[in-house]
Amino acid sequence: MSGSRFVVAGAGLGGALLAAQLGQAGHRVEVYERRPDPRKSGPAEGKSINLAISTRGFHALEQVGLGRRIRDMAVPMRGRLMHDRMGETVFQPYGTTADHTIKSVSRGGLNLELIRCADALPNVVFNFEQACVGCDPDSPAITVRDGAGSDLEVTADVLVGADGAFSAVRRSMQRRTGFDYSQSFLPQSYKELTIPAAPDGSYRIDPDVLHIWPRGGFMLIALPNLDKSFTVTLFWPPADTAGLDATEDSGKVQAFFMEQFPDAVPLMPDLLEDFRDNPAGALVTVRCDPWHHRGKTVLLGDACHAVVPFYGQGANAAFEDCTVLMAALAAHPVDMEAAFRAYHHARKPHVDVLADLAIANFRVMSERVMSRRFLMRKKLEHVLERLLPSSYVPLYTMISFSRIPYGDALRKARRQDRILKCTAGAAGILAIAAALTILL
Ligand SMILES: Cc1cc2nc3c(=O)[nH]c(=O)nc-3n(C[C@H](O)[C@H](O)[C@H](O)COP(=O)(O)OP(=O)(O)OC[C@H]3O[C@@H](n4cnc5c(N)ncnc54)[C@H](O)[C@@H]3O)c2cc1C
After folding, report:
1. 5-76+103-179+286-362 belongs to which CATH class?
2. Which of 311-341 are b and which e, b meaning 16 or more Cβ less than 10 Å from the residue's Cβ?
3. 280 to each of 27, 168, 234, how far by Cα in Å?
4. Average pLDDT estimate for 221-237
5. How far, in Å, from the CA of 118 to the mean position of ligand 1?
6. If you average pLDDT over residues 346-363, what whole number do you get?
7. Would the N or C end of the chain have less CB density within 10 A of its end CB?
């Protein structure tokens, strides 16, 4: 199967990484991307400006030789720093060791490195400003349209849909009998704002943490960038609940921020312009089944499992898809259909779990992180992790700092919780029994 001709729709994070992996494995790869070449036009506008990459993502990046390069462009974050309305802060570490940090990386910079890595291979070709406008998953073939409106049909041995949450390739598969599909939106929207570097070129707030201003149904977060700025994201619910509308006038926006995030306002000199000019994004979860069609067409990343960003795992999961898909291709060298089935079987149940965890984590980040109970629990988890490193691992650690499949991580965390509750219960009973023995 080495030497097959792969056509990849989408040169985003997953598509560019897979092109590099397929190219390194000796396949011929053509990538079609609707945006301009970022090497000429600069990073494209899009979802988030930066994103957190953790162990799963770095494992895949290391496989194509980019681990060190991306670590050098990243700002490590060792925990969350929560800001209350009075400007008081509370720190909560992500883990128990120095390497338990998630890395804030520029999305555009990461995408550029992946494209450069893949395009350096003689058997990989990128075609920009070529949008997939039609697709036949049986052939397989796609129709791509260039900037001038001319269409071209491109055939392949295998077609990969890596064209994001609103995938054109997936849309063509949706018409096939037996293909299940669902998308659901959270009521919250998001909007990106900026904390620029201080006038002396330094960071205005701590750069080694993820800042959160949790306010119940909404929150502000800030992730550091290498240029000493922070990308800030406001996640907020419909106007009627938070009293803020995307189209609101500057006075109301200023008043809202002053009331909710008074310590953040002085850090954002361009707040009102950013709020006015930056688009509001939607938060979508996509699920579908199956992710492949007759050994001819296969989906990866957001195209088959977009998740909301509250576990910082969407790109990590897309990268992990690439690792698993490449392993499945290696394990089934002459049978694409078996390879795609193995890939789907290995990934689908786990990213379904991730989708649920990501939705649930909105409440954790926007609300529970400030509660004393939550902070006590996190402390207890870290004490147990230190005392019993081989048997107790907190869920967040397994998701962010290990490659344990998401579903297995959740099962293990639930088992640990049950044991903990029984142990606490037994300890309580023993204490009561001991007290009674002394008294009677
Ligand atoms: C606000 C926000 C914050 C996030 N933060 C994190 C984080 O901290 N950590 C994390 O791991 N994940 C994060 N994510 C999720 C992450 O962005 C995605 O999961 C990841 O980008 C998925 O990669 P992908 O390659 O599947 O899709 P994308 O990166 O979306 O790439 C799809 C590519 O396909 C192209 N394309 C689309 N349609 C066509 C077409 N018809 N023809 C040709 N090309 C096409 C697009 O232009 C794009 O280049 C975040 C997401 C959001 C919205």
Report:
1. alpha beta
2. bbbbbbbbbbbbbbbbebbeebeeebeebbb
3. 39, 23, 9
4. 96
5. 18
6. 97
7. C
154 token code pair: 């491109």
Tokens 């070129």: give the residue.
Answer: 201
3-state class (DSSP) for residue 38: helix
**What amino acid occupies position 240?**
D
Distance 223 CA to ligand 1 centre (A): 18
**Tokens standing for 16?**
């560019």
Rounded distance between C-alpha atoms, residue 409 and residue 403, angstroms = 9
**For the CA of 167, the nearest atom of ligand 1:** 38
Dihedral sign computed on CA atoms, order 117, 120, 126, 128 = positive
Listed in order, the ranges of the chain carrying CATH 3.50.50.60 are 5-76+103-179+286-362
- Residues of the chain with pLDDT > 90: what percent? 85
12 lines ligand 1 (CB under 6 A): yes
Q: Is beta strand 131-136 parallel, antiparallel or unpaired with respect to 180-195?
A: unpaired
Could you read off the pLDDT of 357-403 as tens digits, one per residue?
999 999 999 888 889 999 999 999 999 999 998 889 999 999 999 99
Across 3-7, average pLDDT: 91
Q: What atom of ligand 1 comes closest to residue 16's alpha carbon?
A: 25
List C-alpha distances in Å: 285 to 132, 311, 388: 22, 13, 36
Q: How far is the CA of 359 from the centre of ligand 1 (A)?
A: 17
Q: Which residues pair with 284 in a beta bridge?
A: 185
Q: How confident is the model at residue 249 (pLDDT cuts 50, 70, 90)?
A: confident
Ligand 1 within 6 A of CB of 111: no
- For 176-224, what is the HEC assignment? CCCCEEEEEEEEEEEEEEEECCCCCCCCCCCCCCEEEEECCCCEEEEEE
Q: What is the mean pLDDT of the chain?
A: 93
Alpha carbon distance 350, 403 (integer Å): 12
The answer to whether 112 and 43 have CB atoms below 8 angstroms apart is yes
Hunting for tokens 């088959």 — which residue is that?
Answer: 304
> CB within 8 A of 12, min separation 6: which ones?
33, 111, 162, 163, 164, 301, 302
In this prediction, residues 22-26 reach a mean pLDDT of: 97
